[in-house]
C-alpha cells in the first residue's frame, strides 16, 4: 500500500515498455525527468545479475536490504550513511555513486573521509530528509519513495538485486 508521503516527493512514476526500449518517467514537483537510456538498461539488466561496477565508485551500507535499514534514522540528519569499504562481516548492501545519482531524485557524495551520504535532490533538503526519516518505523510496510528509488540501484552481499522483482 502506498502512503501519502510518497506523493509529497513525486506525483507519479510511469514506466512504458516500447518494444525492447524502456523509458522511465518520473514526474517530480511538477517537472518531468527522463532517465538516460543507459541508466534504464543497467537497471533492467540488474534484475538478472549484479552489474560490473568496474570504473565506478562502489559504496556499501551495513545491514540487510530492508526498507527499514534503507530509511534514515532520526539522528541521520545528513542523509543515509554509506561507506567506501566493503564490510568484513555481516550483511550489507552495495551500489555505486554513479547509480544512485542516476536516479535523479537522490544524490550520493563523499562528505567526509570514510563516509558517503545519500540525500534527496528535490525540495528543501532538511525537510525532505525529515519526511523520509518519519517513515522509518513503518518503512517495511509502507516505504517512502526515496527508499524505493534507492533499492532500485542496490544489491545485497550475495549479489541479489534489492529492488522490485529482486529476491
Binned strand content? 25-35%
Contiguous low-pLDDT stretches (5 residues minimum) are 1-43
Rounded mean pLDDT score: 78
Rg (C-alpha, Å): 15 Å
Q: State the secondary-structure class.
A: alpha+beta
Main beta sheet? 3 strands, antiparallel
Q: Provide the helix percentage.
A: 10-25%
Task: Let me know the number of strands.
Answer: 9
Strand order of the main beta sheet, please? 1-2-3
**Alpha-carbon distance between the two ends:** 19 Å
Q: Overall 3D geometry?
A: globular
Concise synopsis of the structure shown:
With 167 residues, this protein is α+β, with helices and mostly antiparallel strands.
What this model shows, in words?
With 167 residues, the protein is an alpha+beta fold. It has helices at 4-9, 37-46, 97-102, 125-134, 145-151; strands spanning 12-18, 21-28, 31-34, 58-62, 80-82, 92-96, 106-112, 115-120, 155-156. A hairpin with a 2-residue loop joins strand 7 (106-112) and strand 8. The two termini are 19 Å apart. The model is unreliable at 1-43 (pLDDT under 50).
